[in-house]
Amino acid sequence: MPPTVAGRVAREGTGPNSGATAVPIHGTGADAGTAQATTTVGAGAAADSRLRGLPELDESFERHKSSTAGSIAEADLAVPRRARVIVRARLRYWGRPGLVEPAELLVTELVTNAFKHGLGDVGLRMYLTDTHLLIEVRDGSHQLPVLRKAAPDDENGRGLFLVRAISDAWGVSTDGTTTWCSLLL
Asked: Which of 35, 57, 84, 90 could form a disulfide with 27 if both were Cys (CB 3.0 to 4.6 A apart)?
C-alpha cells in the first residue's frame, strides 16, 4: 500500500475489518523490518471492486472440530489448496493473470497460518482498489502474528517472511484477528 499524507492510506471495507481501525503497515523495502506507517481500515471501501463491476471475493472456511490453535486437523489440510483454486479463478475472471502466482502463495501462507494459529472459522477476502490487490485472512485469534527468523533446518516459521518478501505491504488489524497484504497492480 502506498503511504499518503502523514503516512496513512485509506482502505475501506465491508468484510471482516469493517469499522475504522488503525493497522500497522509493514513494507518490503530496505527498511522492511522497521518501517511503521499506519493504514485506516474503514467501513465501505471495497467499493472499488464493485464500482468496476468486479465483485469482491469473500469466502469462509469452516474449521474442523479437531483443529485447535497449534494443530491442524487432517480435514483442514486441504483448505489452502481450495483457497488457491478460488483465488486463481477469481483473478482470471478479473483479468489479472499476472497476479495469480504471488496471490496464490500469499493466500496459502496466510490461510495455513490462520488454521495453525487461529480460532474458529477462517475468512478470506480479496478485492481490487485502483492500485492494489488486497488480500485479508481472518482467523478469530487476538494473538498478533510474529515475523520470526527460521533456522535453515527449521520445518516451519517462514510464512510471514514470505508474505513480507512477496507483498507490497502487509499488516494486522489492531485486534489481531485479520492479517492482510497487498500486491501492486
From this structure: 35
d(CA 175, CA 18): 12
SS3 35: coil
Residue 110: name the closest of 132, 142, 147, 136 by CA.
136
Q: Which helix (H) or strand (E) holds 27?
A: strand 21-27
- Cα–Cα distance for residue pair 54/88, rounded to 1 Å: 15
Which pTM value belongs to this model?
Answer: 0.71
Candidates 41, 11, 35, 6; CA nearest to 23 is: 41
For the record, the C-alpha cell of 55 comes out as 465483485
Grid cell listed for 177: 484477528
pLDDT at residue 3 tops 80: no
* Alpha-carbon gap, residue 104 to 133, rounded angstroms: 12
Return the residue matching grid coordinates 485486534.
175
Cell of 108: 496459502
Alpha helices, DSSP H only, in the chain?
47-51, 79-93, 100-117, 159-166
Residues 132-144 have a mean pLDDT of 90
Q: What angle do CA 15, 84, 154 make, to 5 degrees?
A: 105
